[in-house]
Amino acid sequence: MRRESSAWTGPWDSTNPYPQQALSYRKAIAFQDAEGRAGRLLPWVLTVDGRLAGQVHVFSIVRGAQQGGTIGYWIAERYAGRGITPAAVAMAIDHCFGVERLHRIEINVRPENVNSLRVVEKLGLRDEGVRRSFLHIAGEWRDHRTFAVTADEVGAGGLVGRLSG
């Protein structure tokens, strides 16, 4: 699925600035499993009619005084534009605020990624500005716009309710 959508997702994929430290696929999965068991990662697979369509994951989960995390996502090009990604991200955020009892979630988007900007716009996330050279993407350090929402801002109806209302 990722290979099939590589032209679609490739410009937004993170890269390793130190390739000599690259993880094998097996080691990357083991790392993700360990992060999940430690409570620092929540991975979800998106399916449409029982077929893999994409992924949403909450990573860099911090407890203590912060109680926050960051969401990343991708969807295969053939499923894009159907409202799947905003719905999945809304469900993930509602899970984080309800079940995980996090307080703040952020999403970082490249300024030229109009499809991801549309997702955060549909969800009504607050734009917190630009982070210069924030993440290594497609082989270079890239600026990102940070969008965030807190549990207080969402309220009892959740983001899924906001999307449907």
TrEMBL record:
The keyword Glycoprotein does not apply. PROSITE patterns: GNAT. The keyword Transferase applies. Gene3D superfamilies: 3.40.630.30. Residues 1-146 form the N-acetyltransferase domain. Keywords: Acyltransferase, Transferase. It comes from the Bacteria. SUPFAM superfamilies: Acyl-CoA N-acyltransferases (Nat). PANTHER family: [RIBOSOMAL PROTEIN US5]-ALANINE N-ACETYLTRANSFERASE, GNAT FAMILY, PUTATIVE (AFU_ORTHOLOGUE AFUA_3G00765)-RELATED-RELATED. Belongs to the acetyltransferase family. RimJ subfamily. This is GNAT family protein. It comes from Dermacoccus barathri. The lineage of its organism: Bacteria, Bacillati, Actinomycetota, Actinomycetes, Micrococcales.
